[in-house]
Design brief:
The structure holds 2 protein chains of 2 kinds. In chain A, 78% of the residues lie in helices and 0% in strands. Chain A is mainly α. Chain A folds into 2 domains: 88 residues, Rna Polymerase Sigma Factor, Chain: A (Orthogonal Bundle), CATH 1.10.1740; 91 residues, Winged helix-like DNA-binding domain superfamily/Winged helix DNA-binding domain (Arc Repressor Mutant, subunit A), CATH 1.10.10. In chain A, helix 2 crosses helix 4, helix 4 crosses helix 9 and helix 9 crosses helix 10. Chain B folds into 2 domains: 46 residues, no CATH class; 136 residues, no CATH class. The radius of gyration of chain B is 44 Å and the shape is rod-shaped. The chains are: A mainly alpha, B mainly alpha. Chains A and B meet through helix 2, helix 3, helix 7, helix 8 and helix 10 of A and helix 3 and helix 4 of B.
């Protein structure tokens, strides 16, 4: 029978490596998924996820027992991924795909009826669309839709006011709807 | 045909979020059934919402182990740092230490060269000799007469012998230290203060070079 988070955290704080390994196993998919979708790169996402758990391990002695583990984990993930993303931007120069370019790219993408049916293609296009969003919209959109968190939880994780979260999600959705419109049209036509 | 946007369209995403009040949601549903524009818009948004439900991904086998290995590595490095603050296992630190020792050697070597060749005016040596002389005379003065004379005599012989040995060493050192007449001339010509400035500058340069190399290694 699997132990609850609180117990695993206490054991990890006492130096129990097996307990910490269980915590990693329990949350690795969530952290990895968020990192990959924010960075748009699986290799980078894996490295970021590893860095997250190393930081969690180091910060665990300061973790308050009564606090929720998952929001704390998401906050660390968001911070580490943001730092990595900024570093990438500095190294590559400011390569930012404009929304217009992205829309054209998606519209020009020649979907054959077969490829439209391939879920993987659609998923990759959606991931690309999410990565093309401004950074501030990316995290709340993903936390809301992919991780199914409430607005309040997102505000808590991002340490920003509730109304700001709502505004960012609303604007992000509108941008995504515009970006994905050509693909949705093509899907409808097939 | 008027392109008037239906007011209910503003509520579509809130409805899909499940954030509408029960009464408002009921009104919204009723409206959707009678409004094709809103109904079509709702379908579009539903599609967008479904697309955004991206599936959870797995980082692959061995992820947990790689995290634990990275933590062990980190802990190993921390332990090394605690046990060996100079981090002598790091080749860059060995290099820095070597540079620092080289700087100290250079300083000592140059001061010795300066004193041996007379460039330093032997002020320090004269002062030490004078104090040593006073001390020895005082000690001799405390000894009984015949013994003092005998010790004094032996001391003289020893001093002569030491003088001969030191002169020999000095000559050998001169031979070893001489990198040519020009160098020796320069040493003799330079005043002590110039020597000090030059040597300290050299020593500090060594340290700065070491620091730069360390920074480069850290990058």
């Amino acid at each position: 029978m699997s132990k609850p988070d609180a117990e695993l955290i206490v054991l990890s704080q006492q130096g129990d490596e097996t307990a910490f390994a269980q915590l990693v196993q329990r949350y690795q998919n969530k952290v990895y998924t968020l990192a990959v979708h924010l960075l748009g790169d699986r290799e980078e996402g894996r490295d970021a996820a590893q860095e997250v758990f190393i930081r969690v391990y180091n910060a665990l002695p300061r973790f308050r027992k009564e606090a929720d583990f998952l929001p704390w984990l998401y906050t660390i993930t968001a911070n580490i991924v943001r730092d990595r993303w900024r570093r990438q931007q500095r190294e590559k120069g400011t390569i930012r795909v404009s929304l217009d370019e992205m829309t054209v790219e998606l519209a020009d993408h020649r979907f054959t009826p077969e490829s439209v049916l391939v879920k993987k293609d659609v998923r990759l296009m959606v991931e690309k669309a999410v990565v093309s969003l401004p950074w501030d919209y990316r995290i709340p959109i993903l936390l809301r839709h992919t991780h199914e968190l409430s607005y309040e939880e997102i505000a808590d994780i991002m340490k920003i006011p509730l109304n700001t979260v709502k505004t960012r999600i609303r604007r992000g959705r509108l941008l995504l709807k515009d970006i994905l419109a050509p693909m949705l049209e093509q899907r409808r036509d097939c | 045909m008027t392109d008037k946007r239906c007011v209910y369209q503003e509520q579509i995403t809130t409805y899909l979020d499940g954030e509408l009040e029960r009464e408002t949601a009921a009104q919204f549903k009723e409206h959707i059934e009678s409004c094709p524009q809103c109904s079509q818009e709702l379908k579009k948004w539903e599609e967008v919402f479904n697309l955004l439900k991206l599936p959870e991904e797995e980082p692959g086998t061995g992820f947990t182990n790689s995290v634990l290995c990275a933590i062990h590595r980190q802990e190993g490095e921390t332990a090394d740092l605690k046990q060996n603050p100079l981090l002598l296992h790091d080749p860059w630190n060995i290099k820095n230490l070597t540079l620092m020792l080289s700087g100290i050697f250079l300083l000592a070597f140059s001061i010795t060269a300066c004193l041996v060749t007379g460039g330093g005016q032997l002020l320090l040596i004269h002062t030490i000799s004078r104090f040593a002389g006073i001390f020895v005379d005082t000690v001799f003065g405390l000894l009984p007469e015949p013994l003092a004379a005998w010790v004094y005599q032996v001391g003289n012989y020893l001093a002569l012998f030491a003088d001969a040995v030191l002169t020999g060493i000095q000559q050998k050192l001169l031979l070893l230290l001489s990198w040519g007449e020009t160098f020796l001339m320069l040493i003799r010509l330079l005043p002590p203060i110039a020597w000090v400035v030059m040597l300290v500058t050299g020593f500090i340069s060594c340290l700065i070079l070491g620091s730069l190399l360390e920074n480069k290694a850290a990058q």
